[in-house]
Amino acid sequence: MCITLLSTAHPAFPFILLSNRDEFLNRPTAPAHWWDAPNEHVLGGRDLQRSARGTWLGITKDGRIANLTNFRDEGEEVARNKSRGGLVTAYLATPPVSEWNDETFVKYLVDDLGIHNVGGFTLLFGELRASKEGSLPGLAAVSNRTSSAQGVRKIATKLGETHGLSNSHFGDATWPKVVHGEQLLQKAIAANVDRDEPEEKFIDSLFDVLSVDTLPRPKEDESFQTYTKQLRNSIMIPPVGGQGIISKPADKVAAADGTDTPDNGEVKVGDGIYGTQKQTVILVNTEGHVTFVERTLYDGRAQPPPADQQTTRVEFDIEGWHR
């Protein structure tokens, strides 16, 4: 049950994004990196389970960002040859000189790529630019139920907003983890501003938000399918549903990052140990400087990675930030 939290409420960082990727821990995943040509302008991790090599979160040198969370949409037929992660790639991989805007990209998704048979998802995407009199370009929110480019919801269009999203439609306030996450992010921002703490201290506090574990432990003989209903209660999901790792509190799980993951499409997923696999914090300051930090809790073998492979950190300046 992934979660995305974002805010435009910090005076020094007009865009903040936090992400937990929850998965079956044996799903092979590449750590965040600059992609190979012709997409060397894209920074993000990649799912190595499927040939589409999609991603759940990425950002480009020219400030385009996209993030996807999926959810089960009962009764909807899903095409096996389509990848929801490929929708993120479709936006990020657009050449930097492209004339596409939000409307033309949504039209491409609906009319050309086809999004109504890929399974339930919410995709946030848009350009990051300097605010102008408190206004921002904002992010578009698209789902598998979007029928046209008209009326697509935009969020983060002004300073002072905070939003959360998990494995349900955007705006679903019935998920405790989303409501709790929004509250904790707002508190972390306020504390950092009030105390005038340095960036590194702030980043640590944001990872603390992503590591909050309020998940009730499974009852004896409770099936994993039944237990999954509890996952909406906790921002971080400790390892559950397998014999390989004993479930333990989040503060005992070492946050880590980027480990080499084998390119192995034959790995069996969908059973075994499930939990928060990766955590990401993205800060963008008022001058368009990006700090992207990814921590990998578990590698493709469902084990914590070596200490020297735990954290990937990339910094760069957004091209055209003041455009």
Automatic annotation (TrEMBL):
GO BP, one annotated term? Golgi organization
Q: Name one Pfam family in it.
A: TANGO2
GO CC entries: Golgi apparatus
Query: What InterPro entries does UniProt report for this protein, alphabetically?
Result: TANGO2
Leader sequence residues: none
PANTHER family given for it?
Answer: SER/THR-RICH PROTEIN T10 IN DGCR REGION, TRANSPORT AND GOLGI ORGANIZATION PROTEIN 2 HOMOLOG
Q: What is this protein called?
A: DUF833-domain-containing protein
Q: Which organism is it from?
A: Oleoguttula mirabilis
